[in-house]
Amino acid sequence: MSSLQLNTEPINPTIPRHVAIIMDGNGRWANRRGHARFFGHVRGTERVREIVEEAIQLGVDALTLYAFSTENWKRPEDELSILWKLLLKHLKREREHMQKNNVRLRVMGEVDRLPAEVQRQVAVTMDMLSANTGLVVTFAVSYGSRREITASAKKIAQAVASGGLRVDEIDENAVAKYLWTADMQDLADVDLLIRTSGEMRISNFLLWQSAYAELEFVDECWPDFTRERFRDVIVKYGKRERRYGGIQK
Length: 249
Ligand code: FPP
Prior knowledge:
This protein is of the alpha/beta class. The protein is 40% helix and 14% strand.
Protein backbone atom coordinates (compact mmCIF):
# COMPACT_ATOMS: atom_id res chain seq x y z
CA MET A 1 0.00 0.00 0.00
CA SER A 2 1.25 3.50 -0.73
CA SER A 3 1.43 6.03 2.10
CA LEU A 4 -0.11 8.79 -0.04
CA GLN A 5 -1.07 11.79 2.11
CA LEU A 6 -4.21 13.50 0.84
CA ASN A 7 -4.13 17.20 1.56
CA THR A 8 -7.74 17.92 0.69
CA GLU A 9 -8.82 20.01 3.68
CA PRO A 10 -9.97 23.44 2.46
CA ILE A 11 -8.78 26.52 4.39
CA ASN A 12 -12.39 27.49 5.18
CA PRO A 13 -14.16 24.13 5.11
CA THR A 14 -17.60 25.64 4.57
CA ILE A 15 -16.59 27.24 1.27
CA PRO A 16 -15.52 24.92 -1.56
CA ARG A 17 -12.18 25.91 -3.05
CA HIS A 18 -13.00 24.54 -6.51
CA VAL A 19 -16.55 24.57 -7.85
CA ALA A 20 -17.31 22.98 -11.22
CA ILE A 21 -20.63 23.54 -12.98
CA ILE A 22 -22.33 21.64 -15.80
CA MET A 23 -24.42 24.49 -17.25
CA ASP A 24 -27.26 22.36 -18.60
CA GLY A 25 -30.75 23.09 -19.85
CA ASN A 26 -30.40 26.14 -22.09
CA GLY A 27 -32.34 24.50 -24.92
CA ARG A 28 -35.15 23.22 -22.70
CA TRP A 29 -35.40 26.59 -20.95
CA ALA A 30 -35.97 28.28 -24.32
CA ASN A 31 -38.31 25.64 -25.75
CA ARG A 32 -40.54 25.73 -22.66
CA ARG A 33 -41.00 29.44 -23.28
CA GLY A 34 -41.74 28.99 -26.96
CA HIS A 35 -38.35 30.32 -28.08
CA ALA A 36 -35.71 28.82 -30.32
CA ARG A 37 -32.87 26.98 -28.54
CA PHE A 38 -30.37 29.71 -29.31
CA PHE A 39 -32.23 32.13 -27.04
CA GLY A 40 -31.49 29.80 -24.14
CA HIS A 41 -27.80 30.00 -24.97
CA VAL A 42 -28.03 33.81 -25.04
CA ARG A 43 -29.61 33.87 -21.60
CA GLY A 44 -27.23 31.17 -20.40
CA THR A 45 -24.24 33.23 -21.42
CA GLU A 46 -25.64 36.22 -19.52
CA ARG A 47 -25.71 34.08 -16.35
CA VAL A 48 -21.98 33.51 -16.41
CA ARG A 49 -21.02 37.00 -15.18
CA GLU A 50 -23.38 36.79 -12.21
CA ILE A 51 -22.08 33.41 -11.10
CA VAL A 52 -18.46 34.57 -11.46
CA GLU A 53 -19.25 37.61 -9.30
CA GLU A 54 -20.92 35.48 -6.67
CA ALA A 55 -18.04 33.00 -6.62
CA ILE A 56 -15.71 35.94 -5.87
CA GLN A 57 -18.04 37.23 -3.13
CA LEU A 58 -18.21 33.81 -1.52
CA GLY A 59 -14.44 33.32 -1.54
CA VAL A 60 -14.32 30.41 -3.99
CA ASP A 61 -10.81 30.01 -5.46
CA ALA A 62 -11.60 28.24 -8.74
CA LEU A 63 -14.72 28.02 -10.88
CA THR A 64 -14.80 25.63 -13.84
CA LEU A 65 -17.69 25.93 -16.28
CA TYR A 66 -18.52 23.20 -18.80
CA ALA A 67 -19.31 25.28 -21.89
CA PHE A 68 -18.92 22.71 -24.67
CA SER A 69 -18.16 18.99 -24.56
CA THR A 70 -16.35 16.82 -27.11
CA GLU A 71 -19.78 15.25 -27.72
CA ASN A 72 -21.39 18.66 -28.45
CA TRP A 73 -19.68 18.70 -31.88
CA LYS A 74 -22.62 16.48 -32.97
CA ARG A 75 -24.98 19.48 -32.77
CA PRO A 76 -26.26 21.17 -35.93
CA GLU A 77 -23.91 23.62 -37.61
CA ASP A 78 -26.13 26.65 -36.93
CA GLU A 79 -26.20 25.92 -33.19
CA LEU A 80 -22.42 25.52 -33.13
CA SER A 81 -21.98 28.80 -34.91
CA ILE A 82 -24.21 30.59 -32.37
CA LEU A 83 -22.27 29.09 -29.49
CA TRP A 84 -18.95 30.34 -30.94
CA LYS A 85 -20.43 33.80 -31.53
CA LEU A 86 -21.64 33.92 -27.93
CA LEU A 87 -18.30 32.79 -26.57
CA LEU A 88 -16.51 35.43 -28.66
CA LYS A 89 -18.90 38.13 -27.53
CA HIS A 90 -18.54 37.05 -23.94
CA LEU A 91 -14.74 37.13 -24.06
CA LYS A 92 -14.70 40.60 -25.62
CA ARG A 93 -17.39 42.01 -23.33
CA GLU A 94 -16.24 40.46 -20.06
CA ARG A 95 -12.47 40.74 -20.13
CA GLU A 96 -12.41 44.25 -18.64
CA HIS A 97 -14.79 43.10 -15.92
CA MET A 98 -12.61 40.05 -15.20
CA GLN A 99 -9.54 42.28 -15.14
CA LYS A 100 -11.15 44.65 -12.62
CA ASN A 101 -12.05 41.67 -10.48
CA ASN A 102 -8.55 40.14 -10.57
CA VAL A 103 -9.89 37.02 -12.35
CA ARG A 104 -7.51 34.70 -14.19
CA LEU A 105 -8.96 32.85 -17.17
CA ARG A 106 -8.10 29.35 -18.34
CA VAL A 107 -9.65 27.64 -21.34
CA MET A 108 -9.31 23.90 -21.16
CA GLY A 109 -9.98 21.38 -23.92
CA GLU A 110 -9.12 20.83 -27.56
CA VAL A 111 -8.74 24.54 -28.23
CA ASP A 112 -7.12 23.83 -31.61
CA ARG A 113 -10.48 22.52 -32.91
CA LEU A 114 -12.20 25.87 -32.30
CA PRO A 115 -12.72 28.45 -35.07
CA ALA A 116 -9.57 30.54 -35.62
CA GLU A 117 -11.07 33.79 -34.33
CA VAL A 118 -12.25 32.08 -31.13
CA GLN A 119 -8.75 30.68 -30.61
CA ARG A 120 -7.31 34.15 -31.14
CA GLN A 121 -9.64 35.87 -28.67
CA VAL A 122 -9.11 33.08 -26.14
CA ALA A 123 -5.35 33.67 -26.37
CA VAL A 124 -5.71 37.46 -26.13
CA THR A 125 -8.02 37.23 -23.10
CA MET A 126 -5.97 34.63 -21.27
CA ASP A 127 -2.83 36.65 -21.86
CA MET A 128 -4.45 39.86 -20.65
CA LEU A 129 -5.58 38.21 -17.40
CA SER A 130 -2.55 35.99 -16.86
CA ALA A 131 -0.99 38.00 -14.02
CA ASN A 132 -4.20 38.11 -11.98
CA THR A 133 -4.21 36.38 -8.63
CA GLY A 134 -7.89 36.10 -7.71
CA LEU A 135 -10.57 33.64 -8.80
CA VAL A 136 -9.38 31.16 -11.43
CA VAL A 137 -12.17 30.81 -13.99
CA THR A 138 -11.91 27.93 -16.44
CA PHE A 139 -14.10 27.49 -19.49
CA ALA A 140 -14.06 23.84 -20.50
CA VAL A 141 -14.52 24.01 -24.26
CA SER A 142 -14.38 21.00 -26.58
CA TYR A 143 -13.56 19.20 -23.36
CA GLY A 144 -14.01 15.52 -22.54
CA SER A 145 -12.56 13.82 -19.52
CA ARG A 146 -11.90 10.51 -21.27
CA ARG A 147 -9.98 12.35 -23.96
CA GLU A 148 -8.00 14.21 -21.30
CA ILE A 149 -7.13 11.00 -19.44
CA THR A 150 -6.24 9.22 -22.71
CA ALA A 151 -3.96 12.11 -23.70
CA SER A 152 -2.29 11.94 -20.30
CA ALA A 153 -1.77 8.15 -20.66
CA LYS A 154 -0.06 8.75 -24.00
CA LYS A 155 2.22 11.43 -22.54
CA ILE A 156 3.13 9.15 -19.63
CA ALA A 157 3.95 6.33 -22.07
CA GLN A 158 6.12 8.71 -24.10
CA ALA A 159 7.90 9.91 -20.95
CA VAL A 160 8.64 6.30 -19.96
CA ALA A 161 9.76 5.39 -23.49
CA SER A 162 12.14 8.34 -23.62
CA GLY A 163 13.59 7.53 -20.19
CA GLY A 164 12.17 10.66 -18.51
CA LEU A 165 9.96 8.68 -16.14
CA ARG A 166 10.28 5.28 -14.45
CA VAL A 167 7.26 2.98 -14.20
CA ASP A 168 7.62 2.83 -10.40
CA GLU A 169 7.36 6.65 -10.30
CA ILE A 170 3.81 6.56 -11.73
CA ASP A 171 1.53 7.23 -8.78
CA GLU A 172 -1.61 9.37 -8.49
CA ASN A 173 0.36 12.58 -8.10
CA ALA A 174 2.40 11.75 -11.20
CA VAL A 175 -0.74 11.10 -13.27
CA ALA A 176 -2.26 14.40 -12.10
CA LYS A 177 0.78 16.20 -13.51
CA TYR A 178 -0.15 15.02 -17.02
CA LEU A 179 -3.81 16.09 -16.90
CA TRP A 180 -5.12 19.32 -18.39
CA THR A 181 -5.57 20.70 -14.87
CA ALA A 182 -1.89 20.18 -13.93
CA ASP A 183 -1.24 23.94 -13.88
CA MET A 184 -3.96 24.35 -11.22
CA GLN A 185 -1.81 22.36 -8.79
CA ASP A 186 -3.59 21.93 -5.44
CA LEU A 187 -6.75 23.56 -6.84
CA ALA A 188 -7.29 20.85 -9.46
CA ASP A 189 -9.46 18.60 -7.30
CA VAL A 190 -13.12 19.61 -7.46
CA ASP A 191 -14.83 20.15 -4.10
CA LEU A 192 -18.33 20.76 -5.38
CA LEU A 193 -19.80 19.70 -8.72
CA ILE A 194 -23.13 21.28 -9.65
CA ARG A 195 -25.36 20.31 -12.57
CA THR A 196 -28.38 22.36 -13.48
CA SER A 197 -31.61 21.25 -15.24
CA GLY A 198 -32.42 18.24 -13.05
CA GLU A 199 -30.34 15.75 -15.04
CA MET A 200 -28.24 13.48 -12.85
CA ARG A 201 -25.19 12.68 -14.94
CA ILE A 202 -21.53 13.68 -14.95
CA SER A 203 -21.33 13.65 -18.79
CA ASN A 204 -17.58 13.11 -19.14
CA PHE A 205 -16.68 16.13 -17.00
CA LEU A 206 -13.60 16.17 -14.76
CA LEU A 207 -13.90 12.47 -13.92
CA TRP A 208 -10.47 12.22 -12.26
CA GLN A 209 -10.64 15.60 -10.54
CA SER A 210 -14.13 14.95 -9.14
CA ALA A 211 -13.21 11.67 -7.44
CA TYR A 212 -14.13 13.12 -4.03
CA ALA A 213 -16.36 15.99 -5.11
CA GLU A 214 -19.66 16.60 -3.43
CA LEU A 215 -22.41 16.47 -6.04
CA GLU A 216 -25.39 18.80 -6.28
CA PHE A 217 -28.10 18.43 -8.91
CA VAL A 218 -30.46 21.38 -9.07
CA ASP A 219 -33.77 21.49 -10.93
CA GLU A 220 -33.39 24.96 -12.43
CA CYS A 221 -32.14 25.18 -16.00
CA TRP A 222 -28.91 27.17 -16.34
CA PRO A 223 -30.57 30.45 -17.45
CA ASP A 224 -32.57 30.36 -14.17
CA PHE A 225 -29.59 29.58 -11.93
CA THR A 226 -29.34 32.85 -10.02
CA ARG A 227 -26.64 34.04 -7.64
CA GLU A 228 -29.06 33.45 -4.75
CA ARG A 229 -29.57 29.83 -5.83
CA PHE A 230 -25.80 29.42 -6.16
CA ARG A 231 -25.36 30.75 -2.64
CA ASP A 232 -27.98 28.26 -1.32
CA VAL A 233 -26.03 25.41 -2.88
CA ILE A 234 -22.79 26.63 -1.29
CA VAL A 235 -24.45 26.94 2.12
CA LYS A 236 -25.76 23.38 1.76
CA TYR A 237 -22.26 22.20 0.84
CA GLY A 238 -20.92 23.81 4.03
CA LYS A 239 -23.16 21.52 6.10
CA ARG A 240 -21.93 18.33 4.51
CA GLU A 241 -19.36 16.14 6.14
CA ARG A 242 -16.53 15.17 3.81
CA ARG A 243 -14.79 12.00 4.89
CA TYR A 244 -12.70 11.10 1.82
CA GLY A 245 -13.34 7.44 2.52
CA GLY A 246 -12.38 7.80 6.20
CA ILE A 247 -14.68 7.68 9.22
CA GLN A 248 -16.69 10.33 11.04
CA LYS A 249 -14.51 12.67 13.15
C1 FPP B 1 -26.30 23.08 -22.20
O1 FPP B 1 -27.63 23.33 -22.57
C2 FPP B 1 -25.47 24.18 -22.58
C3 FPP B 1 -24.50 24.16 -23.54
C4 FPP B 1 -24.17 22.99 -24.36
C5 FPP B 1 -23.75 25.37 -23.83
C6 FPP B 1 -23.34 26.16 -22.64
C7 FPP B 1 -22.91 27.43 -23.11
C8 FPP B 1 -23.17 28.62 -22.57
C9 FPP B 1 -23.88 28.86 -21.33
C10 FPP B 1 -22.76 29.83 -23.33
C11 FPP B 1 -21.31 30.15 -23.46
C12 FPP B 1 -20.46 29.89 -22.31
C13 FPP B 1 -19.54 30.69 -21.79
C14 FPP B 1 -18.57 30.10 -20.85
C15 FPP B 1 -19.45 32.12 -22.06
P1 FPP B 1 -28.28 22.41 -23.67
O2 FPP B 1 -28.21 23.11 -24.95
O3 FPP B 1 -27.63 21.07 -23.64
O4 FPP B 1 -29.74 22.35 -23.14
P2 FPP B 1 -30.75 21.14 -23.26
O5 FPP B 1 -30.17 19.99 -22.49
O6 FPP B 1 -31.97 21.68 -22.64
O7 FPP B 1 -30.89 20.84 -24.72
